Amino acid sequence: MAKNYTSEITQFLNDYKTRHPETELRQREGRSRLWDKQLDPELQDGFRAAQVPQQPYVYQTD
Fold first, then answer.
1. Exposed / middle / buried, residue 9 (Cβ in 10 Å: 0-12, 13-18, 19+)
2. pLDDT tens-place string over residues 25-37
């Protein structure tokens, strides 16, 4: 590919980001709302302690 080539999608995204500079901030807020969570270590320990080991041949009912 040529060094100066930019695809239509890249051009569109660059233009969109130029026209809507708040987009990146909104993306970061959305990510933090869904993914960046503080986990309670005691609760996590309880979940690990409550796990039941999986038996081999899960679908065999004999």
1. exposed
2. 999 999 999 888 8
